[in-house]
Amino acid sequence: MDIKTASALHRLRLISVPEALSFPALLIFGSLLSRVSDIDYLMMPLGILHGILFVIYAVFLLDVWNKAKWPLKKVALFFLFALLPFGGLYGDRLLKRDEADSVIAARAREAAQA
């Protein structure tokens, strides 16, 4: 793997945790808040924020699929992580390993060429 693959994996890791926490933290909290109070105007911005994080996650996942040449099964698994509350936290742990491996491989390749 090269450094572009490592940076794509890093970008996916950066968005996976906020996306994983946006469903339970934002949408469930906003839904509960709107039911126990008169604050109904929060649901739309919270939903939009969650949607934006999900779309960014999906775009970064497609980028990783393209650069890392992942099999479709692995991409589907990480997409499933985005659909499950807190699923991205487990995905982040898996990505951390892949990212570390790709950085080590890129540095070894650079050292071999030098």
From TrEMBL:
It is a multi-pass membrane protein. GO terms for cellular component: plasma membrane. Keywords: Cell membrane, Membrane, Transmembrane, Transmembrane helix. Signal peptide: none annotated. InterPro entries: DUF3817_TM. It is found in: Cell membrane. Its main location: membrane. The keyword Transmembrane helix applies. PANTHER family: MEMBRANE PROTEIN, MEMBRANE PROTEIN-RELATED. This is Uncharacterized protein. It comes from Streptomyces lavendulae subsp. lavendulae.
